[in-house]
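Table S5 (text form). Sequence records supplied for joint modeling of the two-component complex.
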Amino acid sequence: MGAIAPGWVETMANVLIVDDDPYVRELLIEFLTPYHYTLMAAETLSECLTLLPVGKFDLILLDINLPDGNGLEILPEIRQSASAPEVIIFTAEGSAAGAKTAMDNEAWDYILKPFSEQEILLNIKRALEFRASKKALQARFESIFDRSDIVGTSSKITTCLNLAAQCAKTDTNVLITGPTGTGKELFANTIHKNSNRKNAGLIVVDCAALPEQLVESVLFGNVKGAFTGADAARDGLIKKADGGTLFLDEIGELPLAIQKKFLRVLQERKFKQVGGTKVIASNFRLISATNRNLDDMAKQNTFRRDLLYRIKTFHIELPALQECREDIKPLTLHYIHKLCEHHGFETKGFKPDFLKMLESYNWPGNIRELITSLEKAILANADASILYPNYLPQHIRLHHIETSIQNKSENNKIHKKTGSEINPLSLQLPDKLFNPVQSLKQVKKYTAVETEKLYLDHVMRLSKGDLEKTCELAGISKSRLYSLLKTHQTLSKP
Amino acid sequence: MEIIIYTQTENTQKNLLLKQISKIGQPVSVMIFEIEDLFQQLKLKVSGETILVFLISSEEELDALLENKTRLFNIRFIILLSEDHKDWVSKALAMQPRYLGYTANDYTDVGNVLNKMIKKSVINI
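The corresponding structure-token record, covering 619 residues in total, follows.
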């Protein structure tokens, strides 16, 4: 045993070893047995994927070259599985591209074979310690922050949730921006629910739904007779938000005159009703949201810059759904359940193609569009217990077909390109054969020698210099190979 | 876009409301008189394509609505109260409506709000 003493990892971690080489599997099992991990082994990618949902693995040691494919190909699937295990890649043939793929998919490390016992144990130790601290932090975060219906584990959504958690306990003005349908109101509700004002209300003002002539009285209230139709004195929503949170949805739609008046309210937390003279106080926390670019609006003088500075003390920018595609699956699962409940159905399942189609679409309407599409699919066949791709709206199916055709045609182009331009065995005839023009016999002799040379070079590279393998591939004896090598070495000398 | 009105059968305001909504050129799909019937009807609708108008004439109706708030899922709605009693208003605002109005007017405000909501949903869809 190396310098690392058994017992350095307190947790009973579940570790899966994926390698087709029985010697490597046995060696790793021997290394790891003293540490009381629950060890499992798989020889192929398919075995690994079968064990993945049942094993609740903390760590997977994954070989790249496996009989049924490349280990890196299933790395995203492993990372996105329920237990999201850490992954250490090990390979006999490292490459920069492979290492990049591994790192892009958040693999813990990329180790080249042969590795020492010390090296692999140290990596496992660090990966499991990291995982333990991540779990502890997550548990702490979840125990203090109620994320409600915000679904997703992508780094972008996690960042937004962390920001929401940071600002929730303060009274800071928060601006939530992001494209339409990304869940701005949901975030506002979540911030309010986690705030010290949660026992008072969250008052929603949909600025986009209010006609210009109504906004002022809705926000500030009015005295009786203040305008035609003001048949009674009414409190405005700013007053109603006293002690709680005022949520101005689509704040970019506020008319300029109201922006000016509202700025004063933000500065003083005091205002007058429409037609009134009495100063009214309201202690509210402001959350605003918009899908518009308020900086651009400020440049165009359609949104007051001083108001923008006031409302943007804390800024959360929600990502478009296509920027966090890994969240499509959990969102789909979550909303299928909710929608089935809403429509009075047992929760429906779905075919893999159904999810594939959802994941390939670009979702310009973001989560709202996803929800509506799922709802349409659920209602398309009320009796079906399984959702099929053809239940989805036509434009989504059409997009999938168009993308598939496009990808296929691009692949064909690449194949053609590869065939004509990067053929490793292509041979160029030098000018000396044509200036002056040599006989056909001479040219044939030249090409035969050069072809032989190219061929040998290529096969030697394929067999990584292993002479026995080269002979096997080329179908020649060892003595013939030696003779050819000697010939061509001689030939290659100037 | 579908507009559904929930109201008590005997609420005389409903015809005035209907008249105003018809002015914006949007026919009302259904008018419902029982809260359970409303939820049964909503099960058949795509929630993002429906706007609900609640014409509330009693606190009991408001309580029933509040109890069933989650059953509205993500349907957008406006609430019209027959009284502006403080408790009523607080309960109505707790429902987070897109607009809170009162029945003591000619519903021009409701027509205007609905008009803007419909235009906005066309853009979003």
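Note: Chain A touches chain B through 33 residues (CB under 8 Å).
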